[in-house]
TrEMBL record, chain B:
Organism: Roseibium limicola
Protein name: AzlD domain-containing protein
InterPro entries associated with the record: Brnchd-chn_aa_trnsp_AzlD
Transmembrane segments: 6-28, 40-60, 72-89, 94-111
Alphabetized UniProt keyword annotations: Membrane, Transmembrane, Transmembrane helix
Length: 223, 113
């Protein structure tokens, strides 16, 4: 259980627990969100939405945009875990809840080493216990954070953005992903200052479209 | 309505759980039918990546909680330094994270905040 994905996720969620407390979320809200959403970018976007009183519709759109990457990841994993004629759809829907960057990278590395019949049960057990442990650690961190020295608490706050910078770059295979990341980092503060509230949606739509068009022109010319 | 105890849970279930898991469920049912290199999907991924990148810069430039006492240049230095270490030292997330932590906490102690 003490694997690198577990350590990274626990550290990242300890950092998130600090963000959740700083944003005024209760312990129960934090735990429900960690276990039920289980995708750190979505959780961070939703935390910001709740703490700033954003409406449920723009919040859902912002979270859905932040988690759209889970769809191709899930799709890429399905052929690997499915046993044709045997695997039930509800089993795939259950394990799909645990698809998130860190666990997915681990699964794509390690599942092919297992016999096909063993892959789905293994991933179900691995990811369920991973989510359970990380949620417990998040709760402990939330409660203990008051007693931490301030530089340590600050270090945990900064963990989330640095973890995102590195793993988002590592997860971006296409040049458009990398361009979108750079443009998004630059545009985010601009939209936050001049269009607060819907700033993340604007950052995503404007920055993402610029990155897509720029790299499409680079790839295909004006066609 | 936004002040009641149950409103955050409605937000978490509707705007968090369903808004996130819908993509996982679509991923299960699409099961490889949508091409991962399709132009529409490339654009959608770009939008999502830029959005998450916006979250990163907001967390570093406009933090809440204990980080508010740190100067902005120190937080930017920690983020940039962590990313450079990640890029130069074998693209390992743990290296980037540890470097950023050393910069932030080291700077914090040196400045005596």
């Amino acid at each position: 259980m003490v694997s690198l994905p577990a350590v990274i996720l626990m550290a990242a969620f300890i950092g998130y627990a600090g963000l959740a407390r700083g944003s005024g979320l209760t312990l129960t809200e934090t735990l429900v969100m960690a276990g039920l959403v289980w995708a750190l970018p979505s959780i961070v976007v939703l935390t910001g939405a709740i703490s700033t009183g954003l409406g449920i519709v723009p919040a859902a759109i912002a979270v859905a945009l932040a988690s759209v990457r889970l769809m191709p990841m899930t799709m890429a994993m399905m052929p690997m875990v499915r046993v044709p004629g045997k695997t039930k759809t509800w089993q795939l829907l259950y394990i799909s809840h645990f698809v998130a960057v860190t666990a997915w990278v681990y699964a794509m590395h390690n599942l092919p080493k297992l016999p096909r019949d063993a892959r789905l049960p293994f991933f179900a057990g691995f990811s369920s216990s991973l989510t359970f442990c990380v949620t417990c650690v998040t709760g402990a961190a939330y409660l203990l954070l008051d007693d931490l020295p301030k530089p340590v608490a600050g270090g945990l706050f900064i963990l989330t953005p640095i973890y995102f910078v590195c793993s988002l770059w590592g997860a971006s295979k296409l040049s458009s992903d990398k361009a979108a990341m750079v443009i998004g980092i630059l545009l985010g503060p601009f939209f936050y200052l001049y269009f607060p509230g819907l700033d993340l949606l604007w950052t995503g739509l404007v920055g993402g479209t610029l990155a897509y068009l720029g790299t499409r022109f680079q790839r295909r010319g004006l066609s | 309505m936004a002040d009641t105890w149950w409103w955050p849970y409605v937000m978490i279930i509707v705007a968090g759980w369903i808004a996130t898991d819908i993509w996982r469920w679509i991923g299960v049912f699409a099961g490889g039918k949508l091409r991962e290199d399709g132009e529409l999907l490339i654009w959608v991924r770009s939008v999502a990546t830029a959005l998450v990148a916006g979250v990163i810069s907001k967390l570093i430039l406009f933090p809440t909680g204990v980080l508010e006492v740190t100067p902005m240049w120190l937080r930017i230095l920690a983020g940039v330094g962590g990313f450079i270490a990640y890029m130069l030292l074998g693209k390992r997330v743990i290296v980037g994270v540890l470097t950023g932590e050393v910069i932030l906490i080291g700077g914090w102690l040196l400045l005596g905040l």
